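Hi P.,

Sorry for the delay on this. The queue was packed all week, but I finally got your sequence through. Input first:
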Amino acid sequence: MTTLTEIKARARADAFAARAAAHARGQGQAAEILADYLAPHRDRPLSGYMAMRTEIDPLGAMTAHQGPVGVPVILGKGQPLRFREWAPGCALVEGAFKALIPAEGAWIEPEILIVPLVAFDARGYRLGYGGGFYDRTLEGLRARRPTLAIGFAFAAQELPEVPIEPTDQRLDAIVTEEGVREFA
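Then the structure:
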């Protein structure tokens, strides 16, 4: 019998290959589409991320945001993320998993998160890297107030169905180079 861990590992391998091929083709106007989607949320604290390897890059949308922007910081295994304020040109250092994070700055609590992912499906579920950081973080933020989670990915990263667990947090929308999809 195949375990959920094995199913997720196989789905990640397929999605990483699709993402790498899409990355090689370029992300088109994806960051501009994301910036347009975020425009009505100006002044609200936003979390983006510093793209790694073949992740789609939200930097253009982060730079265009008219409000505070943070970048996720991993504090430790099993903990939710914290978000350090980021601005274009700020000094960056290598954090956990070699992700770049601001060298210094205030901590912010985002109301809107641009969420990186390995794969997504038409139900609004995402497959992450397996650490559960965004699921824990979204659960905590959503317990305190409405929090918008926007997946950002290449259209090629869509799977027919992402394997999920009870702790998986659903996205509110997905933005790709092909446009925006919102989930009810």
